[in-house]
């Protein structure tokens, strides 16, 4: 099958990484072409061959309009030339390219962010009306979309993101030559780690506040942040005001975060919203015991055998593969932060529980293998191709 993966770029970002991982997985069995609007900065390895449109974002209104038409024309030409069976869009929901029509190729859009879907569902509906199908990265996102637009039920599917467990483990074994981190590791008995871009959705400022409560209850623990972003300065300010800056290490963006994560004792996801939180599953691939807010969407699907997004409304809960804490809107911001702190103290204070969840995390991560995802993609692609024919 000839498959095109379309993305704005493959620079830093969760969707960019997902698109790259999927292109690599599919390329092992299919003829894959990765199409980028701007391939000047590629961070993630891609599968198959690359077509770089060399049409980066523009600043002036006129240039933006011209670029939109150039991208649409180029995509249609590429799909024809490649004789693509499937063109899989990983583009931002507001991108005008989503409304392009492909006559012969199966066109599939994706929904990978519940917050974005909830905010502007009509944009996805408009795109899907001009497409053959939509693939979401969590079952909850798929079901939520169908609850809004039940007429699209037979066009909506769910496939979890791909986690390359072997690669993650291999990269985690690389040596850390960061003296500052090594000293921080050696000076703390237990380290918790959070990974991602500093932004509102990640709620890292709440994790700092929760960590302050942990420090009042537990001795000699440290918090490591891996990632960058403008809101990081606010987290640094909060830490200084709370007098805990010496126990928080900001590692910045790391091309290989896994070698840092593997040197920590537990992973925490403090997010307000997610699509499918790659980093949660990646932490589990490293056999790290994990704690996550019950944010929409993803964590409950990852940490429970029978997903329940109504769990942990008022207090943290021990689940099948990790600990889930309340959403910030379920019991109030202050109480949710306290429950996050209580969960951290509970986990770090119980060695047997940490060993149990570390073992179960490694087992669960195997469920997000490339092989399992490719099988699902193949069934969806074939069904939509037959339907279009």
What does this structure look like?
The protein is of the alpha/beta class. The protein is 44% helix and 16% strand.
Question: In the residues, how many domains can be counted?
Answer: 2
Structural class: alpha/beta
CATH homologous superfamily annotation of the largest domain: Glycogen Phosphorylase B
Average pLDDT metric: 95
Roughly what fraction of the amino acids lie in strands?
A: 15-25%
CATH topology of the largest domain: Rossmann fold
CATH architecture of the largest domain: 3-Layer(aba) Sandwich
β-strand number: 14
Strand count, sense and barrel status of the largest sheet are: 7 strands, parallel
The Rg value, from CA coordinates, equals 21 Å
Give, in spatial order, the strands making up the sheet with the most strands.
3-2-1-4-5-6-7
In short:
The chain is an alpha/beta fold. The chain contains 16 helices and 14 strands.
List keywords for this structure.
alpha/beta; Rossmann fold; seven-stranded parallel β-sheet
Please outline the helices and strands.
Blueprint: E1 2-7, H1 14-27, E2 31-36, E3 49-52, H2 61-82, E4 86-89, E5 106-111, H3 114-119, H4 121-129, E6 133-136, H5 139-148, E7 156-158, H6 165-172, H7 179-186, E8 190-195, H8 204-217, E9 221-226, H9 232-242, E10 248-252, H10 258-261, E11 266-269, H11 278-285, E12 290-293, H12 299-303, E13 317-318, E14 323-325, H13 328-331, H14 333-348, H15 351-365, H16 370-388
Parallel strand pairs: 1-2, 1-4, 2-3, 4-5, 5-6, 6-7, 8-9, 8-11, 9-10, 11-12, 12-14
Antiparallel strand pairs: 13-14
